[in-house]
Amino acid sequence: MAKAIKLSDELVHDAAINGKAQHRSAPKQIEYWAKIGKIADENPDLPLIFIRGILLGIEEYEAGDVSEYQFG
């Protein structure tokens, strides 16, 4: 469910700049930041790069881009 919320001009401006660099709209960038922040808050021992890797792995799996891991 979408809801209108008030955000600071500075946050929206920063999201627009960062989002453009990552090919996201400002709202999608803010959603991304919120998702990362929520995961980091729930898992304080995980480094950011690890969280990003997990999210990338999920997207690859959902896109069918998977293969069996070969040990050794």
Describe this structure in words.
- The chain has 72 residues and is mainly alpha-helical.
- It has a domain at 19-61.
- The protein has helices at residues 9-21, 26-42, 48-62.
- The mean pLDDT is 94.
Structure at a glance:
The protein is an all-alpha fold.
* Shape, principal axes of CA atoms: elongated
| Average of per-residue pLDDT values | 94
Distance between the termini: 47 Å
**What is the tally of beta strands?**
0
What is the helix fraction of residues, given as a range?
55-70%
- Low-confidence region ranges: none
Query: How would a textbook summarize the main sheet?
Result: none
Order of H and E elements: HHH
Radius of gyration: 16 Å
**What fraction of the residues are assigned to beta strands by DSSP?**
under 5%
Helix-strand makeup class: mainly alpha
> Count of DSSP helices?
3
